[in-house]
Write a structure and sequence with these properties.
single chain; 84 residues; alpha+beta; Aminopeptidase; 3 helices
């Protein structure tokens, strides 16, 4: 049986499901991860998509937002600065 996956705008009804997926893949506390996701949706340029099948089962998600000025430089130093 073939499953059809649709990409739709990430809506609040999917938040718990995507946080659960994120925590299972990356680890972390559910509540603090959910708080962070709820904060991210308020950022300028935020866009999110969720992949769901005909039974509304979540198969994946993606989201992003516009970084603040110099945020990339700060994050680069934090994450990769030790590799210099």
């Amino acid at each position: 049986m073939e499953t059809t996956i649709n990409l739709i705008k990430l809506a609040p009804i999917y938040l718990d499901k995507i946080v659960d997926i994120y925590c299972r893949v990356h680890g972390g506390d559910f509540d603090s991860t959910k708080d962070r996701f709820e904060c991210h949706v308020t950022y300028e340029g935020y866009q999110g998509l969720v992949a769901v099948d005909e039974n509304d089962k979540v198969h994946g998600f993606v989201y992003g937002y516009t970084s603040l000025p110099d945020q990339s430089k700060v994050q680069y130093e934090k994450w990769l600065g030790s590799l210099k």
